[in-house]
Amino acid sequence: MSEPNCSPSPSNEIPTLTHRVRWAHELVLQGKRTEARALFYSPEIEAAEWERCLHLGQFLIETGYASEAIEPLSIVLDYAHQQQENQLRSVVCHNLAIAYRKLGYFELAAQFQQYSISWGDLRSANHLTLEQEVDQLSDDAACDLTGRANDAILQQDYQLAEQLLNISLTREILYGSPDAQAADWGNLGILHGLQGNHTRAITYLWKAYLLHKQTTNLPAMGQDLTHLAEIFWALGRFQRATRCLSRSIHYFSLCDQTADAQTASARLHEFQRLLQVKQHNPLLN
């Protein structure tokens, strides 16, 4: 297994953990999951055990293995408690919230998101108002806002969710990455779709897709197209909906996101079946 040329560093330089993470993502794109995970256990990595586990947990979440991310992230949380490292507590709780949210444990996700906030930059534990919390935000706190917004969406508190996402998006545009901005645009699109604001939902989801395309974030591009497909279907633009789903399956397959590809394929088959019924039912024409 030869290492890709991810950086111009000298050949005798010891690869950093960040370098290994980039390499692992490249291997996943090539369908080499086992080799990708093995990189995090390499004795060549000069990093503390908690740091190795944190990066592994984040990698597993990003590549669709949220259930397997719980164990390494829990190791990090235990270390953070022992060392009383509040910022590390905040980071790992945010990642645990993401993992549990992806697994469908929404109440547990909301609980860990609140832990992240309490130990991080927001002071919700002191019962401050939203405006007071925002005043105390640091430049890298938008991830907690996005997490809180996701929980608000699940609780159908759409007004709060939109408020949090707009604040987060403003900060991501100033300080964040295209992927972080795209996440907020995508969540805003989903939010407006749930409320029936389909035109605005399409605009926001398309912004998210274009930003994810800039960074070649294939799993996120697939998700954006999946959400767009649902909106187009709700609008009666059935051919556009099926094209979006077909394209999302293509992107999921390219990055070895098997579960997402299967879910999208099942939905595509359902769309095609419903479309055949509509085309042959005179009462619907």
From TrEMBL:
This is Tetratricopeptide repeat protein. It comes from the Bacteria. InterPro entries: TPR-like_helical_dom_sf, TPR_rpt. It comes from Gimesia alba. SUPFAM superfamilies: HCP-like (SSF81901).
